[in-house]
Amino acid sequence: MAFLNKPLGLGSYDSLRRDLGISSKSVVHHWKKAGVSGQIPGYATHLDEVAKVSKYLKYGGWVGIGLGAGSSYLKVYEACRSGETKACKKIRFTEAGSFAGGLAGGVAGGQLASLAAKAVCRFGVYGKAVCGIAMIGGGSYGGSTLGEPVGDVLGEMAYEALYD
Predict the structure, then answer these.
(1) 33 in a domain, yes or no?
(2) Does the pLDDT value for residue 31 go beyond 80?
(3) For range 11-40, the mean pLDDT
(4) Would you list the DSSP string of the chain?
(5) Does 130 reside within a domain?
(6) Number of folded domains in the chain?
(7) What is the per-residue pLDDT across 51-88, written as a single tens digit (0 to 9) for each?
(8) Are 112 and 128 contacting, i.e. CB atoms less than 8 angstroms apart?
(9) Cut 0.90: pTM above it
(10) 103 pLDDT higher than 90
(11) Cα distance between residue 138 and residue 140, in whole Å
(12) Is residue 23 domain-resident?
């Protein structure tokens, strides 16, 4: 284990520190205060910005779900406006299935894209956020787009099992 005691071949550490313009007192001072809130320049600002973005994205997801549910409701309302018909019963099943399939597909796509984003997004603080938002948003959209027709078919199968 003698190789562990050999220097790295960087020369005198004092000259390296001096060449980089690093003061020993300054480094020790910042190390002691690094655990204190607000002592790392720019760090708190980055965290505040990320917290704001995540807050808006969280509400955006709920708004999207609400819009999807409202759209399904309006389709059912339009079909059932004339009364309780066979088409009205069928569209209730297919729209509920389509909404549920889109929601489940969106969640699954978002989860898969989240795993992929962890492997792919290796940029700075803002680069990771933008890459993650793009990948997870795309994965959610893709999963939702694929899940809607599946849910529609399952809703139709449930209707046929109950009423045909």
Answers:
(1) no
(2) no
(3) 56
(4) -GGGGS--S---HHHHHHHHT--HHHHHHHHHHTTSTT-STTHHHHHHHHHHHHHHHHHHHHHHHHHHHHHHHHHHHHHHTT-S-HHHHHHHHHHHHHHHHHHHHHHHHHHHHHHHHHHH--S-HHHHHHHHHHHHHHHHHHHHHHHHHHHHHHHHHHHHHHH-
(5) yes
(6) 1
(7) 777 777 778 778 888 888 999 999 889 888 877 788 88
(8) no
(9) no
(10) yes
(11) 5
(12) no
Residue 65 pLDDT: 87
Distance from C-alpha of 17 to C-alpha of 23, rounded to nearest angstrom = 7
Q: Which residue has the higher pLDDT, 15 or 137?
A: 137
> Which residue is listed with tokens 């019963």?
89
Q: Is residue 148 classed exposed, middle or buried when 0-12, 13-18 and 19+ CB atoms within 10 A define those classes?
A: buried
The verdict on residue 11 lying in a domain is: no
- Distance, in Å, from the CA atom of 153 to the CA atom of 160, rounded to the nearest integer, reads 11
Contact predicate 107/68, CB 8 Å: no
Range of the domain at 92: 43-163
Record the tokens describing residue 33, joined without a space: 């205060």
Give the residue among 128, 129, 135, 143 at the shortest CA–CA distance from 114.
135
- Residue identified by tokens 């929601």 is 103
